[in-house]
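Hi all, a correction to my earlier message: I attached the wrong file for Cadherin domain-containing protein. Here's the right sequence:
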Amino acid sequence: SVYISEGVSIGHSVLQLLANDADLPPNSDVRYDITSGNDEDLFDVDPVSGILTVKNQLDFDIGPSEYSLVVRASDSAKSPPDVPLSTVETIRIILEDENDNTPHFPVSEYLEFVGENEAVGSPVFTARATDIDRGAYGQLNYSIMSAAASGFTDIEDSWKLFRVDPVMGVVTTNAVFDYESRNRYAFTLTASDKGGRTARVRVRIEIESRDEFHPQFTERTYRFVLGVNDLPVGYIVGHVTGVVTTNA
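and the right structure:
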């Protein structure tokens, strides 16, 4: 088996085939070729030197991660009734993954809503970034950071009021919010692969008001004096006033 990185350049030498023939020249001259396993035309072999090279770009993430090439070494029988003799060998080429892709969020910004007074730990939304790398380099870890630290001009402490599951990407509340005190927050969500590549997206959270206060009359008792006995229908006796008390 031969291990090579998916990122090797075209023309990279994988190995050199070497076969011996006990005949005398010219019958002992050996020629090499690939007989099977090279359907995608990714490899080439020099017929004289036997050097096996990469012919087209390899990609661990979208193609097979290993190849089995059947190579042949044939002698150079020149004179009838001699015919060329040959032998075959299978070479297993295994690709090694490189971290050549960056995580990606499907949107440039998330806008989400949270009701005021919801309990700590309430789910807000689930972020889903993708990384087309396979294996360890395709596994993502989510985290929250200050929006200001990533170039956005937002209130610095917003990121402390939310949490994200590092594996699942579920964002939850880390505080109980009051619409009347403050109703907008922003932070940056990051998705990092195990090779150090990172994607960032801005998250804006708006707090939704809830009907949490009961209306109250401005007076405990209202008194109205009627000066005459015979009043028309619709006569305005007086006015009462009610208010809704908030923390504002």
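Sorry for the mix-up. The first strand starts at residue 2 and ends at 5.
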